[in-house]
Design goal:
By secondary structure, this protein is α/β, with parallel strands linked by helices. The chain is built from 17 helices and twelve strands. The longest helix has 33 residues. The structure holds ligand FNR.
């Protein structure tokens, strides 16, 4: 879909236009969509394109994978549709941290996208620019944050921050993100150590050891200054240095003051699952919290993100922006998360599989399908403004 089309359909019957086009092509042009419609078909076709490395890295979660599986189960929450409410002109736009977003959907930070497609993060960024969907770039990207910012143009962009135990590198990342035009910093707090992931351990595979996903480090002046020889001359030593400064399990809430002092950008704390941690994040100066299980990749057996969301929204949602990811595969799930208190939601694996399937075009297709589903769900539920999706739109099945 071109930007022009996207602008045309934005806000008015986005989803209806999409499905009408598909039906017309099917009935009159004998043409069925060549891009998979359901998530399971998409994943299956993406797997055909993916290397064993990409599959091991992207698919599945920690340990038994029960959190990874449970994340996807939103069925406890039932949408209660309302009728005859005049929903012809639906507005999907919303304001997040003071910025206008065209849709209540963003792309979540997902590392090492070069494993999924040669154009990696640049392809995803171009798709976001085309569709006007905000993008969150992982620290662990193969492309540099500056190149990704350029590909995004004026599309809203956030930078996800893993702060390095080397304070010079940690500071440099924040400076670079601000200079490159990122609008916010997402501090991921749910990865003090690596998770136990059978699928990677079975293969003995860790992408960073072969230099994938560390473009931001290799291009960083402070990181380069800390090396005896530049990464181009001695990549092994550079990877070792990266591994030695990546992650810091000694961090506490008090350390957030460091990030708060270094940047004027809004700060989002990603990976919060307990209401007390959400309150603590706000006390420490965060502008938003992101409810997330990291896609079930960290704590085997943890609460699912959708189970944690209502309590956290209740604890801090009136004053603080609440974001949600983990498990969203369809628009109706996004709708439920918005109803349970999220101000916007972030899409993970579906876009990754779109990228593996057909690069930029694949990501655009995933976004178009998901946005269409959100639009249709809103219309069918009797809501014409994203900002009006609230707790009254869903019921807990236990109360039915
Ligand atoms: C992630 N996630 C992640 N999060 C983050 O803050 N920084 C990162 O670099 C990554 N990298 C990453 C790689 C892969 C392959 C996956 C699947 C996930 C977590 C991500 O932002 C998000 O929380 C999950 O993807 C949400 O789960 P679903 O919806 O994708 O299952």
């Amino acid at each position: 879909m071109s930007k022009q089309d996207s602008a045309d359909v934005h806000g008015e019957q986005f989803g209806v236009k999409h499905i009408r086009r598909v039906y017309r092509e099917g009935m009159f042009e004998d043409k069925t969509p060549d891009f998979p419609v359901s998530f399971s078909d998409l994943r299956e076709e993406a797997f055909e394109e993916m290397s064993w490395k990409a599959k091991a890295y992207v698919h599945g979660g920690a340990g038994t994978e029960e959190t990874f599986e449970r994340n996807k189960d939103f069925s406890r929450w039932r949408i209660i549709p309302r009728m005859l409410r005049g929903v012809a002109d639906r507005d999907l736009s919303t304001t997040v941290l003071g910025n206008e977003h065209s849709y209540p959907l963003m792309i979540t930070p997902l590392g090492v996208q070069s494993l999924l497609h040669d154009d990696g993060e640049i392809a995803t960024a171009r798709a976001c620019a085309e569709m006007d969907v905000p993008f969150v770039l992982s620290s662990l990207s193969s492309a540099t944050m500056e190149d990704v910012a350029e590909a995004l143009g004026d599309t809203p962009k956030w930078f996800q921050y893993y702060w390095a135990s080397d304070r010079d590198v940690a500071t440099s990342f924040l400076d670079r993100a601000e200079t490159a035009g990122y609008d916010a910093i997402v501090v991921t707090v749910d990865a003090p150590t690596l998770g136990w992931r059978d699928r990677l351990l079975e293969k003995g595979y860790y992408p960073f050891l072969e230099g994938e996903g560390i473009g931001n480090y290799f291009s960083d002046p402070a990181f380069r200054d800390s090396l005896a020889r530049p990464p181009e001359e001695d990549p092994e030593a550079a990877v070792d240095r990266f591994l030695s400064i990546f992650g810091d399990a000694s961090l506490t809430w008090d350390d957030l003051a460091f990030v708060r002092e270094q940047t004027d950008l809004p700060i989002i704390i990603k990976g919060v699952l307990h209401p007390d941690d959400a309150r603590r994040a706000v006390e420490a100066g965060a502008d938003a919290v992101q409810v997330s299980t990291h896609g079930g990749r960290q704590v085997d057996g943890s609460i699912a993100a959708i189970e944690a969301l209502p309590e956290i929204a209740e604890a801090v949602g009136d004053e603080t922006t609440v974001l949600f990811d983990s498990g969203i595969r369809r628009g109706a799930q996004a709708f439920k998360a918005l109803a349970l208190g999220a101000d916007t939601v972030l899409l993970g694996r579906p876009f990754a599989y779109g990228l593996a399937h057909s690069g930029q075009e694949g990501v655009e297709q995933v976004l178009e399908n998901t946005l269409s589903q959100i639009d249709l769900t809103m219309g069918l539920a009797g809501i014409d403004d994203v900002d009006d999706i609230d707790r009254s739109a869903v019921r807990d099945e236990a109360s039915l």
